[in-house]
């Protein structure tokens, strides 16, 4: 039932075909910086209520597309929902996600439920179908999932962490237990991404937000094999972009993973990343989300400078290096998107 429309600008850029201008979307383009998002959230009562209601999830997915006319719409959802589907209670409070029953032992890992996303995450599929129906025909719909390593950090720590103490304990003292967990997560993530493609996602993003906390050597053992497995299973169905937060030391490895696209952190020079990529994949990025706190005219100037630095290079998808920050002025995001739309390669 998937209708592939390879003519959309974003999909063409991911395939490194010639484009008249770079496509643009933003990580966390739906969210608290938008007054229309805050209104829906207040009505729904909370983040998870919005995510689990396909009508509300579709509405907030479409909000930034309507306001800015981005070339991509990323489904409003969260990377932690598959953990919930595997039996881990999940809450969101003001401090972020909370998983009150973290996994610490091999027995905990073995007790995770086998879960078919077609049933346990059916609301995600329904939200995708609704977005697809309401989307302008030139805008591509993106699905996503967390990469196994990043999901493991949440499952083991029980939330967001600064030191990753529990995860590192497991990694160094009981690496086989961590590998058993990563195997279970990779299986779930693969099924979830394929399910999203079936429900109308035309491109997919794999978020490895905390991969940068690994040494290169540990990335090769605890992240790369699972990421490769996911890419091999999913990329034939829909182009896949991999993201690693603060992952400059991992860039060479990521460029060789076989993904259609690699998201580049704002700390890395985009032009340099294109040199390293040598035409193997498209690159997404990498405007500093902090610079979106500047006034619109200055955002436009800096956006043009970034686009000029890679003018004419095929396979660029303009984005931020990480998610839009809550105090961002929507007018500054509007300037960022409009600058890309007016730019001529
Ligand atoms: O617009 C979009 O980008 C699509 C929706 C989206 C959300 N989360 C919504 C969200 C996406 C793609 C994610 C992915 C996600 N979730 C990641 C990977 C990307 C990244 O940012 O590195 C991670 C690590 C999570 C886990 C997560 N969810 C955290 C740590 C938090 C709390 C931090 C925060 O910003 O509040 C969330 C909550 C969350 N997910 C919000 C949104 C819009 C904020 C919810 C709210 O309070 O309204």
Describe this structure in words.
It is built from 17 helices and nine strands. It has a single domain (9-342), classed as TIM Barrel, CATH 3.20.20. With 345 residues, the protein is α/β, with parallel strands linked by helices. It has helices spanning 9-14, 35-44, 47-52, 54-68, 81-85, 106-110, 117-120, 122-134, 148-157, 165-173, 175-198, 216-222, 224-234, 251-255, 270-277, 296-309, 330-342, and strands at 72-74, 91-93, 96-98, 140-146, 203-208, 240-244, 261-263, 282-287, 316-320. α4 (54-68) packs parallel to α8. It has a seven-stranded parallel beta sheet with strand order 1-4-5-6-7-8-9. The two termini are 34 Å apart. The model has no long low-confidence stretch (mean pLDDT 97). Coproporphyrinogen III binds next to β3. Residues 27-32, 41, 47, 74, 76-80, 92, 96-97, 144, 160, 207, 209, 245, 323 line the site of coproporphyrinogen III.
